[in-house]
Write a structure and sequence with these properties.
alpha+beta; FAS1 domain; globular
Length: 171
């Protein structure tokens, strides 16, 4: 009896673990689950990009933290969130997205293959250059700004999220 009960508990635990492993959320769910990405989630909603980023993908998203948005000049975020600036906001946000799933290993391999850098084409058509600064991956934007990747490989059902410390800007 004790053995049957123990086996039942083990089966139940394995079943729950399997359900949790398969319940991985999409890009939006991953971002929404982070207290450090509330500004990003609000911006995605304001730009009407929720459905896109819940799509099949796969996507690689370089997700700026709230602190990254706070580095922008005063009033910038508030101004971008206005309905009349939706296109500009969408352009900035899609500049943080690359088609395909590039986990940290793939990014590092591409940097090595590119002799120290790789140019990534973003969903908005702009270019981000990834390189190494010491042991950290950095992204250089088209305006000369630099963001450091601070966390990698936040898996989503439709891609992967990497956290960055600065908002990157297209031309």
């Amino acid at each position: 009896m004790k053995s049957t009960f123990l086996k039942s508990v083990i089966v139940l635990v394995l079943a729950v673990a399997s359900i949790n492993a398969n319940a991985q959320g999409d890009i939006i769910s991953v971002a929404a689950g982070s207290k450090d990405h509330t500004t990003l989630v609000a911006a995605i909603k304001a730009a009407d990009l929720v459905i896109t980023l819940q799509g099949k993908g796969p996507f690689t998203v370089f997700a700026p933290t709230n602190a990254a948005f706070n580095k922008l000049p005063a009033g910038t975020v508030e101004n971008l969130l206005k309905p009349e600036n939706k296109a500009a906001l969408a352009s900035i946000l899609t500049y943080h997205v690359v088609a395909g799933k590039l986990d940290a290993e793939a990014v590092l391999a591409a940097i090595e293959k590119g002799n120290g850098k790789v140019v990534l084409t973003t969903v908005n058509g702009g270019k981000l250059t990834a390189s190494l600064s010491g042991k950290k991956v950095v992204l250089s934007d088209e305006k000369g700004g630099v963001a450091t990747v601070t966390a990698t490989d936040l898996e989503a059902s439709n891609g992967v999220v990497h956290v960055i410390d600065t908002v990157v800007m297209p031309k």
